[in-house]
Amino acid sequence: MVFVSENRVPSEEPQRPRTKKKRTARNVLLSVVALFLVAAIGAGVYAFSLASSFNSKSQKIEQAFPEDAARPAKVQAGATNLLLLGSDSRAAALGSAEAGDSSDQRSDTMMWVHVPADHKNIYMMSIMRDTWVQIPGHGEAKMNAAMALGGIPLVVQTLEGMFGTRFDHVAVIDFEGFKAMTDALGGVNVNVPAAFNTKQFSFPEGKQQLSGEEALAFVRERKAFSDGDYQRVKNQQLFLKALMTKFLTAETLTNPGKISSLVDTVSPYISADKSLDAAAAGALAIGLRDVRGSDVVSFTLPTLGIGTSNDGQSIVLRDDAAIDAIGKALADDSLGSYVEGSGVTNKR
């Protein structure tokens, strides 16, 4: 297996509209919502109140999955797999994207969340948006084109086909609640691996506390790094880990006001498949009540670096050996062993 993201430098992308900043911020919010879906709603004696808030404030995706005949069978008894997607806005994400029609949306943020049957960990795998993949019915294209070509069901079908594993749930997230959620926790402490500057802030090397505004700048920045999106994804994972560590403490989990505020903040920006209501999330969360920040593992799907497609696009080359190995690990419910043996985690 080859993972060369630290050694190959992506080509610079053209300037995009301001919505690009929202998309990169959603990488982190997306991960935080994963935590809430599988942990916060079922935390202790506050479950009923949190469940009511989640059910009343979140929205449902009427059609999240492709036809059953196009899907792999569920084989990993007791394990749970969730697909989390970012969108420009919740309203835009629902429309044609959920109906399976062509859409003007692209999902720049994709994360596979795996909870093993023993419920001892949460694994979050980021998938680079420019990974060159086979999209059913459309041939090869960048992963983030699946939403535009066939909406949420085609994204699900593409990823399920790659890994041979079925998703149990799908959620689409808008980023607007991110800043308030960060500030509601009183800031988050991050260990910055190397100093860099953005237009608004300077981030020296080492541990420091970030406010909501600083956190957005930290997870958005790409141009300050020689390897662009690769380092940005690593920084997002670092911040996610810090945020989860701050959340998964006795101080937070035993504070009903703080938990309610956080769930109230995030829930309006979530759209989930019809089966992912608070009861389903709460049932899963009961088994995760002992999970803490050190038990949450994030990594990026390994790639073979940067290349060029036949039609001249700059793309991220997929690592078929890694995809096959991860698919087998998902089927065997042994993703933890794969992660430990492959060294793919962002451990700092």
**Could you give a short account of the major beta sheet?**
7 strands, mixed
CATH topology of the domain at 19-177 and 272-342: Nucleotidyltransferase, domain 5
Distance N to C terminus: 22 Å
H/I helix tally: 12
Number of strands: 15
User: What is the CATH class name of the domain at 19-177 and 272-342?
Assistant: Alpha Beta
Name of the CATH architecture of the domain at 19-177 and 272-342: 2-Layer Sandwich
Give the ordered list of helices and strands. HHEEHEEEEHEHEEEEHHHHEHEEEHH
Mean pLDDT: 78
Portion of residues within helices: 25-40%
**CA-based shape:** globular
What does this structure look like?
The chain is α+β, with helices and mostly antiparallel strands and 348 residues long. It is 40% helix and 20% strand. It contains twelve helices and 15 strands. The protein has helices at residues 19-38, 47-57, 90-99, 146-163, 178-184, 212-220, 229-247, 250-253, 256-266, 278-286, 320-332, 335-342, and strands spanning 59-61, 80-86, 110-115, 122-126, 132-135, 139-142, 169-173, 188-192, 196-197, 202-203, 206-210, 270-273, 296-300, 303-308, 314-318. The strands form five sheets. The protein has a seven-stranded mixed β-sheet, with helices on both faces. Strands 5-6 form a two-stranded antiparallel ribbon. Helix 1 packs across helix 6 (212-220), helix 1 packs parallel to helix 7 and helix 5 (178-184) packs antiparallel against helix 9.
